[in-house]
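sry for the spam today, last one i promise. struct tokens for design, 146 residues
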């Protein structure tokens, strides 16, 4: 839903492929999208899916550990847990940076998906929307995968 109380979707595709980055899909609350962003400042909290080519065919944890600049696993708070998201194996963890975030990394097929939900406080609507968003994701089974 867009408009008051909803989200605005933005797709970001690199001009040229850097570090196997394919695309990001950013969900921003409508109210935040209509505000003027501070020049040289940080944007608002978002839910973001970043997609990368998994050229080394790494599992989620190995990819996250090797690509800390994208996974933020070096900023994790607490333990990294294993999960299944949309039928694919994943890791989940909290991280702290400019904003606290819930993070899910899924290695599936030829790609890795880094899904982050940033929030200002535990009661924010972005945080409350993150779990149902993750539960809505479905991956198509790949050959040799159960």
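last one done:
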């Amino acid at each position: 839903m867009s408009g008051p109380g909803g989200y605005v979707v933005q797709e970001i595709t690199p001009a040229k492929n850097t570090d196997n980055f394919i695309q990001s899909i950013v969900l921003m609350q409508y109210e935040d999208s209509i505000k003027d962003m501070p020049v040289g400042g940080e944007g608002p909290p978002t839910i973001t899916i970043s997609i990368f080519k998994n050229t080394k065919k790494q599992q989620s944890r190995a990819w996250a550990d090797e690509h800390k600049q994208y996974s933020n696993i070096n900023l994790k708070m607490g333990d990294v847990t294993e999960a299944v998201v949309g039928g694919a194996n994943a890791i989940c963890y909290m991280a702290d940076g400019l904003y606290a975030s819930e993070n899910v990394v899924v290695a599936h097929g030829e790609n890795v998906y880094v899904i982050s939900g940033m929030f200002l406080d535990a009661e924010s609507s972005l945080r409350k929307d993150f779990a149902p968003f993750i539960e809505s994701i479905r991956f198509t089974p790949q050959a040799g995968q159960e």
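Residues 119 and 126 are 6 Å apart (CA to CA). ok im logging off now
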